[in-house]
């Protein structure tokens, strides 16, 4: 079957004044008046009294926005069919090593927006727990477990070896967290994650580490490299149609978790990267930008990076201290 995004797209022509006037509630008065005024309400009212409470809350808004979008833009059956096939394509390309659907939402900024909404801190707090960032489509569960001081580099492919170190502490008390899991992954210098590259060993540049009683951690990884998101799937084709670049600034992914604490999904970014202010998935936050310092006296590494993680206890979160991200392998 041909791709849903092969050009030329069979799109309806754009006409002058097609979108109409957008009202205060986000609807188009001129477009809406042309169609059955009761249709959207009938769809919403079809939800039964025993529906899931959260869905019953969300669906009326979602249905209204979707229906109004279709009316305002006079979406045709052919355009709708192409959008369905596009989503189907994302599903067919996704597996346990790559999530194309998640990549699509990333380039629309949806995951970063939802992350921002989820990550809330009391306004009067002088400090914050570790800031969250998107999971991305290339996380893999069950990365190898290494002892502290080990390296995630399974094959020498060049790049700047970095000694990363720091601590994992309780945001409220400042006390070290014992047995916190640090799950790390990043690309090789060629800009590819190991599951994208047959030349890399399985689980290369991935690993999990567990903190001792001191809460301290250290391991060896690579200074990250900027890279383009994959262009071989529907998400990449979509970017091309929008005349957008695919580049992500150099970053390292983390999931930090511990019993009794809200997990944090985050990334850290190299301050010297040229794409820092123009991330194709809109994930960069100021508090996640770091400096890689030259390291002396360590024959294993040429750079040093210190970064401390602060987790919010589940009980503190119930009392209004916010931070952390639920981890899924969607």
In brief:
With 330 residues, the protein is an alpha/beta fold. The chain has eight helices and twelve strands.
Low-confidence stretches: 17-29, 121-126, 325-330
- The string of secondary-structure elements, in order, is HHHHHHEEEEEHEEEEEEEH
Mean pLDDT across residues = 86
- Total E-strand runs: 12
What is the CA–CA distance across the termini? 25 Å
The biggest sheet amounts to: 5 strands, mixed
Number of helices: 8
Describe the structure.
There is one protein chain. The protein is an alpha/beta fold and 330 residues long. The chain has 8 helices and 12 strands. The strands form 3 sheets. Strands 1, 4, 10, 11 and 12 form a 5-stranded mixed beta sheet that branches. Strand 10 and strand 11 form a beta hairpin. Helix 2 runs antiparallel to helix 3 and helix 5 (100-107) packs parallel to helix 7 (234-241). The protein is globular, with a radius of gyration of 23 Å.
What brief labels describe this structure?
330 residues, 5-stranded mixed beta sheet, disordered C terminus, 24% helix, alpha/beta, 8 helices, 12 strands
Q: How does the SSE layout of this entry go?
A:
Blueprint: H1 29-32, H2 39-45, H3 53-73, H4 77-93, H5 100-107, H6 110-118, E1 161-170, E2 181-185, E3 206-210, E4 216-222, E5 227-228, H7 234-241, E6 247-248, E7 251-257, E8 264-270, E9 289-290, E10 293-294, E11 303-306, E12 309-311, H8 314-318
Parallel strand pairs: 1-11, 1-12, 8-9
Antiparallel strand pairs: 1-4, 2-3, 2-7, 5-6, 7-8, 10-11
């Amino acid at each position: 079957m041909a791709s849903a995004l092969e050009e030329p797209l069979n799109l309806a022509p754009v006409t002058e004044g097609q979108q109409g006037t957008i009202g205060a509630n986000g609807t188009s008065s001129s477009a809406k008046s042309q169609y059955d005024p009761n249709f959207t309400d009938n769809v919403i009212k079809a939800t039964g009294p025993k529906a899931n409470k959260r869905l019953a809350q969300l669906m009326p808004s979602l249905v209204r926005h979707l229906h109004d979008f279709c009316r305002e833009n006079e979406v045709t059956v052919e355009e709708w069919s192409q959008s369905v096939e596009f989503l189907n394509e994302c599903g067919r390309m996704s597996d346990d090593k790559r999530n194309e659907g998640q990549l699509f939402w990333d380039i629309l900024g949806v995951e970063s927006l939802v992350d921002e909404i989820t990550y809330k801190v009391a306004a009067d707090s002088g400090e914050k727990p570790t800031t969250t960032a998107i999971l991305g489509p290339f996380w893999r569960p069950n990365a190898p477990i290494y002892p502290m001081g080990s390296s995630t580099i399974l094959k020498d492919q060049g790049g700047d070896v970095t000694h990363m170190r720091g601590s994992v502490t309780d945001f409220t008390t400042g006390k070290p967290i014992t047995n916190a899991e640090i799950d790390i992954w990043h690309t090789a210098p060629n800009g590819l994650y190991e599951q994208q590259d047959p030349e890399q060993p399985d689980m290369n540049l991935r690993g999990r580490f567990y903190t001792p009683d001191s809460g301290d951690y250290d391991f060896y990884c690579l200074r990250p490299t900027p890279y383009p998101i994959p262009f071989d799937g529907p998400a990449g084709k979509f970017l091309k149609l929008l005349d957008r670049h695919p580049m992500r600034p150099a970053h390292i992914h983390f999931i930090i978790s511990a019993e009794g604490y809200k997990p944090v999904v985050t990334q850290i970014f190299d301050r010297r990267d040229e794409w820092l202010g123009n991330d194709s998935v809109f994930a960069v936050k100021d508090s996640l930008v770091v400096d890689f310092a030259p390291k002396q006296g360590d024959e294993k590494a040429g750079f040093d990076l210190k970064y401390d993680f602060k987790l919010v206890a589940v009980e503190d979160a119930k009392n209004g201290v916010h931070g952390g991200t639920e981890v899924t392998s969607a």
